[in-house]
Specification:
Length: 200
């Protein structure tokens, strides 16, 4: 009943992820308005966004949404805000996140940095596809883990830094919105009281 009359192709769906139909500016504005309408305290909403941003720094593609919701549930943050926060991880930002977490990881593990012309991500994704297709654990360890492990290690401090930064970036404007909403609510309440007094 609620399905499209004409189904969109996978190519159009992929392009809509890279560049939304409404444009990135309107998309960001849309999510900001959604964020302002989320029930809960400013601190809960900001913590939720922080969970989503932090989860997006992790190299677990396809699981960011679930991870962010799980963390938000554990710390009693807004789960809706956590879901919105995951938009930080998208096709435009993932290449930078992957390289950044990998470089940070190899630095922490003392394995050296990414050299020019080296393509560990191509090897990792190729090995991941083949290991899943053939259920080959040895292939996964040999071709995926050498890149995935530094990314996991590097994503831990990056996630913490990104999450804390997101919390303080979001907290102030959300507090301002809630304060303005409360002022308007009090003003309407006073107007109603005045009308009731005049009616008497």
């Amino acid at each position: 009943m609620f399905k499209r009359r004409t189904s969109t192709s996978w190519a159009i769906q992929f392009l809509s992820v890279i560049w939304p139909k409404m444009g990135w500016r309107r998309a960001v504005s849309y999510y900001w308005h959604r964020l302002k309408r989320i029930p809960g305290s400013p601190e809960s909403i900001a913590m939720g966004v922080a969970c989503g941003v932090a989860a997006s720094m992790m190299p677990f593609m396809g699981l960011h949404f679930l991870i962010s919701m799980g963390i938000a549930w554990l710390i009693r943050a807004s789960m809706i805000a956590a879901a919105i926060g995951t938009i930080v991880g998208n096709p435009w930002t993932f290449p930078f996140i992957w390289v950044g977490t990998y470089e940070f990881g190899v630095l922490l593990l003392g394995e050296g940095s990414l050299e020019s012309g080296e393509t560990p991500f191509r090897t990792m994704f190729g090995g991941l596809y083949r290991s899943i297709e053939t259920f080959d654990g040895t292939l996964f360890v040999d071709q995926v883990m050498p890149t995935l492990l530094p990314m996991i290690v590097g994503s831990i401090p990056v996630s913490i830094i990104a999450g804390v930064s997101a919390y303080f970036i979001v907290l102030r404007p959300v507090r301002a919105v809630h304060k303005l909403r409360q002022v308007r609510k009090n003003s309407l309440s006073e107007d109603n009281d005045d009308l009731m007094k005049d009616g008497k």
